[in-house]
Amino acid sequence: MGYSKPMLAAVIGVGTELTSGQIINKNSAWISKNLKDKGIPTSCHLVVPDDRGLILEALHFAARHCDTLFVTGGLGPTTDDFTRDLIAEWAQKPLEFHEASWEHVNQRLRSRGLQVREAQRQQCYFPQGATVLHNPEGTANAFQMEVGGKAVFVLPGPPSEIAAIWKTSLGLYIQEKAKGLDKLLTYSWDTMGVGESDVAHITETCLQGADVEKGYRVHLPYVEVKVTFQESQKEKLSGVLQSLDEALKHITVARNGEDPAELLARKLETVKKLEVVDSFSGPVLLERLLPFLKTYLAESAWSFSNLPGPTWGDPQSLKMVLKPWDSSSAIAEIHFKGASFKTIFEAPFMISKMTDRKRLYFVERALLFWLQKTNDLL
């Protein structure tokens, strides 16, 4: 199989609300993750305020370190929205009015009973030669163009609008461009129960001399191992990767970014009543589950208690329990329609006296236990 040269992306987030800390720049992470899923790496993330000089500097810098550039924010109707002007200046192209975008603005605002103001027209100017990308979730259309041999995509700031544009047009472009690339592949192992230095020692020993990029990330109670390489080297590296897999097998709890909480939530989608009882971890378990159990808030009945006593006691509800056993152990239980499973976890010596780490460890062990047992119950 022949491969073409890899793509390399960069992302610029524009907005004083980002640099001031008012909001977190989630767009860059979202874009890079979606690119990574297609085997396209990102060289850098830049965040700049609504400052014309700094935005131009960011464009010049990012363009030197990528062949595909994404710019988010600054396409709205207010006076601090001038990203399009600076892209036009950078590309040395005049701005041209796009009548279809004006019709889009009018239709979207009037359908919601909102007044169309003259200031909205600034959202309808695009650099000469740009391709306008329809925004189904907002008034500001996006656009793409080539500048100095670089593919440039200029997107609005709201994450929901970026996701909508990605789904309707931009994602298709990325998918097409990714065909035939010598993509970057990343294999990962989430390990538990062994310290970072020991995990690194196992990994470095197995991968000695292998042409791969190695990385480690501690996200308690896990130590993640990441190995990245070009797709063209996959067959050549198969033996050494298999050896690493075997060496880490006894401490591996998840592979390739799988999240036990997310996988458990998927398992529970068919359960109409859910009870969670946690008298051990404080807020830790609730914080882990909530992002993935949002559907329960709207569609199913569920309860959370930090008391060991019964809640509904309904045999038709699935009940997950986490409670202390002694100073270094905890019990996890799962009950559904008369069937019950229980196990006791003991904290590894290295974290047995660290309260916060112990809570994190037992929550993850409980999630993994419940995930395993839902296969028998559901």
Task: Describe the protein's architecture and organization.
- This protein is of the alpha/beta class and 378 residues long.
- It folds into three domains: 9-178, MoaB/Mog-like domain (Molybdenum Cofactor Biosythetic Enzyme, Chain A, 3-Layer(aba) Sandwich), CATH 3.40.980; 184-255, Alpha-Beta Plaits; 260-377, Alpha-Beta Complex (Maf protein).
- The chain is built from twelve helices and 17 strands.
- It has helices spanning 16-19, 26-36, 52-63, 83-91, 99-110, 159-178, 196-206, 234-248, 260-267, 284-289, 294-299, 355-377; strands at 9-14, 42-48, 68-72, 95-97, 125-127, 131-133, 142-147, 150-155, 184-192, 213-219, 222-230, 252-255, 273-278, 301-305, 318-326, 329-336, 339-346.
- The strands form four sheets. A six-stranded mixed β-sheet has the order 2-1-3-8-7-6, with helices on both faces. A five-stranded mixed β-sheet has the order 14-13-15-16-17.
- Strand 10 and strand 11 (222-230) form a beta hairpin.
- Helix 3 crosses helix 4.
- It is globular.
- It starts with 8 loop residues before the first strand and ends with a helix.
Features:
six-stranded mixed sheet, Alpha-Beta Plaits, 12 helices, Maf protein, 28% strand, five-stranded mixed sheet, Molybdenum Cofactor Biosythetic Enzyme, Chain A, single chain, alpha/beta, 378 residues
